[in-house]
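RETRY 2/3 - previous attempt timed out on the joint model. Re-submitting the same 844-residue input unchanged.
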Amino acid sequence: MAKIAPVPEEAVLEDVRLKAPEVSLEQAAKLGGVAGIVAVFVSANGMVQAFAERDIISGILSMGYALLFLVPLIIAYLAAREPPVLEGFEAPQKGPRNVVAGLIVGAITGLFLVLFVLLASAVNLRRVFINISPQLLDLLTFGQGSGGLVLLAAGSLLMGAAGGLTQLLEAKWRRALWGAVAWTLLIGLLEVIVAQLFRGLGLNVLAPFFYAGTGGLTPVGAAIVFVIAFLYYWAVVPKVNQWQHAYAQMPAERQRSVRLSAVVAAVIVVAVTPQVLGPFVSEVLDLVGIFLLMGLGLNIVVGFAGLLDLGYVAFFAVGAYTTAILTSPASPRWSPEMSFWAALPFVILAAALAGIIVGTPVLRMRGDYLAIVTLGFGEIARLLLLSDWLRPVFGGAQGILKIPNLSIGPIVFRTPVDMFYPIVGFCLLAAYVSWKLKNSRIGRAWMAMREDEQVAEAMGVDIVEIKLKAFIVGAVIASFGGALFAVKIGSVFPHSFSLLVSITVLVLVIVGGLGSIPGVVVGTLALVGLPELLREFQEYRLLAYGVLLILMMLYRPEGLLPTKQWVRELHEEELMQDAWLKMEEDRRRAQAQAQTSQGDLPPAQPEEA
Amino acid sequence: MLHLKNINTHYGPIHILRNVNIEIYPGEIVCLLGGNASGKTTTLRTILGMVRPSAGEIYLDGERVDGLPTTEVVKRGISMVPENRRLFKRMTVLENLEMGAFLRHDHEGIQEDLERIFELFPRVKERLHQKAGTLSGGEQQMVAIGRALMARPKVLLMDEPSMGLAPVLVEQTFEIIQQINQQGTTIFVVEQNANMALSIAHRGYVLQTGRIVLADTAQNLLHNEMMRQAYLGEM
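RETRY 2/3 succeeded.
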């Protein structure tokens, strides 16, 4: 008989539970380098200095410092986080190691910044990097000269430690703390909206209490906002799940009444929003709404049908110019002067035609090729509008002026506040159409085509038909945006329809989450609304879009508010790995158990015979 | 039932199929054998109308179907299990099956067929709301076959069902093909694995660089000298 394999000892069984990896200090050092480079970059490109003009908390914290020190804080937080713990593994103990990781990030960032200041004060870099000004260096050293370098390093180290320390907190406290910090910064930045809100609600007395008047919150106001936000995250947010559960438990009738009251509340909020927020914020909201319309349209083309259209602005232009030509008395003599509503069917018709014109030649194209051809179409549209040849129709670079205001019967929508309502109306219509289409037969066919065009065709899907339909629906929705844009501004110029519009819309759809309707809303608010409100931001808008896109693709490719399907797809690998490791471990455990329970019986040996 | 008459197909200037004649009778399993690039997949694509033949005619139940768009061909009762299964990976298993019945509007019939597929593949029912991409190769094969059956085809085309599957699964797949055939579906299967295909088929055709070089009953083909040397791996 062959030699019997030794029976594993008890200890082996105990040890089956594997330990998950700890926080890696090496990784922290690498991330520290990243944080250092980012901090130096935002300083050298002028962001810190430009943002320093605006206070978040009056006299204490400017937006520039906030930007600079948020870098080590956030990256230290990420560096101090344990790697994800797979199922069946034991999570490591939290402890000093987390804080050390944070400190490493803070120290390296500080070092980079100090070296940067030293280099910049020793060598004149301004010839190449025009934003590295003496004022910037002053800012970075807190106006203290070389003594400020110590402050700079210490501040960075402190932020690193803070980022690491938050990892030691319980999840509930951590979320509350970060939420409170985020809200304080946001409320500080959005003085325009909040102060106007106080004014609109007749709470004018509150404004000076919260805002210093020179921009930014008062220290007391900041403290109040912080505490309220903290309590909200600490006490209210954990309850949301319970409420959802309670709602699901309600009888159908009560559910309906809850839903109804929610709708009524939403309608009231929407109705009073522009009145309360005043013309400036309404103007921003109108712009957000128009981009939202385009986002919803592009979401159908790219998100549902998977057709990457980079010339989407063409349809926006078609809507705007058709409206302008048909309604404006300043347009060519042969064109009529209709009302907006009479022109609308023609706008739809023109957009559908444009959809067919762009869609037909690209029917047999996919992916990159489609993107490049549509990009070309977008530029062609702009150049046609600009051309001298078509000046009698489109007015060339001078565009078309005197587009009359939108009106329904005696009601005329003149101001941005008025325009808010029709824009919201069209957005709701577009969202409803999107939602309906998504769950329809054609929505299914679009999805199948996105997954595998040839197989979809073999299932009997008429690829030509549904591709054209995607282009047409997308074009019509964008043309509504264009039509509203034209009547809102009162004039149209070719330069309003640049490639940048296409890119902005695409970015907001991707950031929000491809194929997800709420995602588009959030994406638009964040990418169109915020930069409009933060003037300092305008110059760095494209930089921010680029950075955001890269980060999204790396860390959250499903978008901010994704559809469930996407999450499944993109985090699949992790899940699979998880399942595999668990299986492997179960197998080991079962094996060990089988061997011990068999006691001294020899395990089967293949070579035995 | 399905009759290809003197079919010639071109991809641009390249002549792929040359005077292909294939006849499939109701209730049969017919296999089309051939090596790489012999034109097997093109034959299926031509039948489905995804490529138009440059000459020749295709009849389904005596009606001409060549030149019709794919949608129309599928409607008339031909469906396909594509090579490598090619499920819609980000859609659920149920959605995949429903896509198979895309052109049908008889709600009850669709439900009936779903039940029938669950009977055939109990595993599929367990995975109904899982995403198709997460299934194992064998399970994907079941869904792909189920999806094609959801069209309730008169003739089921299968493109290399053995490709990329473990030997055990290949055997299982061919058993299932036989079972489907016994339930009344005519099957036209394209394969490189000649041994396996001939073991279940009634008749077979051999395609070589776009030409049919042999056509006989499966039994005869299995014993044909040339076949044995070229495809069955015997010296």
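The radius of gyration of chain B is 17 Å. Closing ticket.
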